[in-house]
Amino acid sequence: MENHFPVEKFQAIETPFYYYNMQLLEDTLQVIKEESEKYGYHVHYAVKANANKKILETINSYGLGADCVSGNEVSASIEAGFPGNKVVYAGVGKTDKEIITGLKNNIGCFNVESIPELEVINELAEKQGVVANVALRINPNVKANTHHYITTGLEENKFGIYIWDLEKVMDKIEELDHVNFKGIHFHIGSQINDLDSYKQLCVRVNELQELFKQRRAIPQIVNVGGGLGIDYENPDENPMPDFKAFFKIFDDFLELEEGQEVHFELGRSVVCQCGTLISKVIYVKEGVNTHFAIVDAGMSDLIRPALYQAYHKIENLSSDQEDEKYDVVGPICESSDCFGKAVTLPKTSRGDIIAIRSAGAYGEIMANQYNLRQLPKAFYSSDL
């Protein structure tokens, strides 16, 4: 599936900006819906990947729930139309104000990460005169084979309840009158392309289910998280990951008790390929060993290359000349403000339109105003 960009229209728009291919987003959502419904699975969209309101509204229209990690994400999801009972709220450091936001919106579940958090939710729920549904986020100690900044399921990470503390946590839940044990929750990391990691997760979940059976406290919800990766190098050839194989793994390897629901939290794999950061070349500067294509987008608009040394495919949309190599850099006063080194592009000149691909996840949402730069605007294929 080739992504056709309206380059002439881009010329008339002030850069940098995010461009969203809404048809690709809808195609992706349709596949997720079809493949997950084969097994009766429940899919929540991880709002932290992209909270653009039009994106959220489109995702909600396909019946997905919302997975939130802040009180403001809960509010944004509700404003975009997600029903409160399809909103789940995770996070290792929920404030009282954020918990109250969740309680007032009658969200489906809090994914709880510690005994102190359980106690605070119980106290605040009592003051509101309600009972809060909670799922225990368990750290399964499963390696996700991904960047060390975005792995979350190892004992060395800050996330989740350690397996050896589960009995103590369950004892505490039985003491609390304003929390209701609803489920168990896992998330092992992000940008996972080795599906064997999910097989390992299923095995660990099956083992842990035995503990809950012994206590006669069968969780209704088994939330296995998300983290499914995408192809950053070949966005046109692979515009969406293999959702069919992904969901089938859990059907093949997860051993469920009667009445249990399987929930997912997909973020990057839903929105990443539909988004592109569009920029213009300001200058081409000849260096000693390389040429620099200096663009008007910077690490304030897309921080992933600077933060994770992440790869994004870079294309010159307005040149068809012979290829040359460039370091594609931004205008910010940091050496890390670089989108790619020795990038092969058609001969590039001032004013050329540059596309930085696969930027729909952790792009616009992480934009900042470092150097007092303006936040990038968003435009949509359906409007151009």
TrEMBL record:
<keyword id="KW-0663">Pyridoxal phosphate</keyword>
<keyword id="KW-0028">Amino-acid biosynthesis</keyword>
<keyword id="KW-0457">Lysine biosynthesis</keyword>
<keyword id="KW-0210">Decarboxylase</keyword>
<feature type="active site" description="Proton donor">
    <location>
        <position position="333"/>
    </location>
</feature>
<dbReference type="Pfam" id="PF02784">
    <property type="entry name" value="Orn_Arg_deC_N"/>
</dbReference>
<dbReference type="InterPro" id="IPR009006">
    <property type="entry name" value="Ala_racemase/Decarboxylase_C"/>
</dbReference>
<feature type="modified residue" description="N6-(pyridoxal phosphate)lysine">
    <location>
        <position position="48"/>
    </location>
</feature>
<protein>
    <recommendedName>
        <fullName>Diaminopimelate decarboxylase</fullName>
        <ecNumber>4.1.1.20</ecNumber>
    </recommendedName>
</protein>
<dbReference type="InterPro" id="IPR022653">
    <property type="entry name" value="De-COase2_pyr-phos_BS"/>
</dbReference>
<dbReference type="GO" id="GO:0009089">
    <property type="term" value="P:lysine biosynthetic process via diaminopimelate"/>
</dbReference>
<dbReference type="InterPro" id="IPR000183">
    <property type="entry name" value="Orn/DAP/Arg_de-COase"/>
</dbReference>
<dbReference type="InterPro" id="IPR029066">
    <property type="entry name" value="PLP-binding_barrel"/>
</dbReference>
<dbReference type="InterPro" id="IPR022644">
    <property type="entry name" value="De-COase2_N"/>
</dbReference>
<feature type="domain" description="Orn/DAP/Arg decarboxylase 2 N-terminal">
    <location>
        <begin position="40"/>
        <end position="271"/>
    </location>
</feature>
<dbReference type="GO" id="GO:0008836">
    <property type="term" value="F:diaminopimelate decarboxylase activity"/>
</dbReference>
<keyword id="KW-0456">Lyase</keyword>
<dbReference type="InterPro" id="IPR002986">
    <property type="entry name" value="DAP_deCOOHase_LysA"/>
</dbReference>
<comment type="pathway">
    <text>Amino-acid biosynthesis; L-lysine biosynthesis via DAP pathway; L-lysine from DL-2,6-diaminopimelate: step 1/1.</text>
</comment>
